[in-house]
Amino acid sequence: MKTLRLILGDQLCRTLSALRDMDHTRDVVFMAEVHDETTYVRHHKQKLVLVLSAMRHFAESLRAEGMHMDYVQLDDKGNSGSFTGELGRALSRHHVDRIVVTQPGEWRVWEMMQTWGEEFDTPVEFREDDRFLCSQAEFAHWAKGNKSFRLEYFYRHMRRKTGWLMTGDKPEGGRWNYDEENRKKLPRNFQTPPARRFAPDAITREVMTLVRNRFADHFGQLESFDWAVTREDALQALQHFITHCLPQFGDYQDAMKTGQDFLFHSALSPYINIGLLNPQEVCEAALAAYHQGLAPLSAVEGFVRQILGWREYVRGVYWMKMPDYARTNFLNAERPLPDFYWTGETDMKCLREVVEATRRNAYAHHIQRLMITGNFALLTGVAPLQVEEWYLSVYADAFEWVELPNTHGMALHADGGLLGSKPYASSGAYIDRMSDYCAGCAYDPKTKLGTEACPFNYLYWYFLIVNEARLKPNPRMALPYRLLARMAANRRQQITRQAQEFLARLQSRYL
Ligand SMILES: Cc1cc2nc3c(=O)[nH]c(=O)nc-3n(C[C@H](O)[C@H](O)[C@H](O)COP(=O)(O)OP(=O)(O)OC[C@H]3O[C@@H](n4cnc5c(N)ncnc54)[C@H](O)[C@@H]3O)c2cc1C
Ligand code: SF4
Prior knowledge:
Blueprint (H helix, E strand, L loop, with lengths): L2 E4 L21 E5 L2 H5 L5 H20 L4 E4 L10 H12 L3 E5 L4 H7 L2 H5 L3 E4 L8 H9 L6 H12 L3 E2 L2 E2 L30 H13 L16 H14 L1 H4 L19 H6 L4 H13 L5 H25 L18 H4 L5 H13 L4 H15 L3 H11 L5 H12 L16 H7 L20 H12 L1 H4 L6 H9 L2 H22 L1
Parallel strand pairs: 1-2, 1-4, 2-3, 4-5
Antiparallel strand pairs: 6-7
Bound molecules: flavin-adenine dinucleotide and iron/sulfur cluster (SF4).
Flavin-adenine dinucleotide binds next to α11, α13, α16 and α18.
């Protein structure tokens, strides 16, 4: 039976289910760069280079193995610009008996694929994406049996299942979670880990030229591109992280520092998400470092939880709740996204720093995404769809199955608390504690009202005031609402006035 095996841009993995049982003598591996995928949001230029160059390198490696490749480049003559169009053209070239594809990561693509069997009168076999550590069926089963749909319980289930950091049925070290030890401020004299840079090769340079010419109006710096685009280099990035960053990953996981774009974070998410690295091998490398005494338990547990816990959990939520999940708007947030998310032109230094780092690298670490750009969008009530489009565009690791639950659920509380039990709303005090951004800002994080006051301070209280009916019943919001209840009426009025003036300026300035 002659088979066409379709590989998508985030499925660049030799052990992918769609490549199993490959018959080298008959089958065709089909890959296509299509306009629709490069523009459904205005992806950061580096994200485009990463995916397109990694696709081309992956195709080269399969070709070198002797596979029959059919690869369509973005600027090939006759490229129809869509997956469906390109698949149709490929089928007319190859006359196959069936199409095999690994389930795509995004709902949008999944829906499109449902029409193919009928449209092409060719059977389409969908295979599970078993690069994940928890299948969709297993997640649904777990969720059904658990009244409390929380990450913490899912994570424990996964720890027990894998046996990672377990002593019998008990967590290693006696605790499931070492978060309390993982929230340190950076010491003054901390040593920055050495940079890891992958100089662009000829294929990447060719793709950079394509992106420079074709997507000039997309966000982001192109020339600083230094991501790995092959599995070999991604493995080197993994090793670099294990050696230089993992031992301190836990301690400084929440810290932020001007000009230090990566700190002790792994920056491995783009590689894991497009298939260059497998989540299991990444966790196993961290576990091996722990067992060899090269990294402490708190760091390794913190790291493993992000992948075995959060990454699998958000994917489970996405597939269980889509497509309705994306449409909820619990806080009725409707404000347009301020223009400075694209330009970086704001006198709020924390936001400026994060947008600039994002522009430089197509990367910001979790706390920057959650507590700076996410927190500001939450407090000011920016419409979820606009915030989600921004996150999906600007990060090299952004694919909807992981971006959407993180933005919609975790950062914006737009799902009403399905993913996070309370909104991650915070005043300037948190940012001041965890970063050095406030030094040199036009505002003062310790001042609550008046022209000097950090906007996060009054916006935080105003957020609580305007969302009182929705959030006060949440038991986890009891403390802030008790504090709000104790606030003098005239102070409440002053906060409301200043927040409304700020929001009005935000509108008039950026609309
Ligand atoms: C608003 C918002 C949007 C986000 N959008 C994305 C996205 O589009 N793609 C994406 O991969 N992550 C996203 N995240 C999660 C997280 O911020 C990134 O995975 C992380 O910053 C990637 O950097 P790193 O590889 O250095 O991570 P590290 O801090 O080194 O963590 C290790 C790994 O754990 C995984 N991980 C950590 N946190 C999460 C999480 N919350 N959800 C899923 N996986 C996680 C990633 O694979 C990451 O590589 C988002 C978070 C927020 C708050
Ligand atoms: S003072 Fe406020 S706006 Fe300025 S950097 Fe600090 S938290 Fe951000």
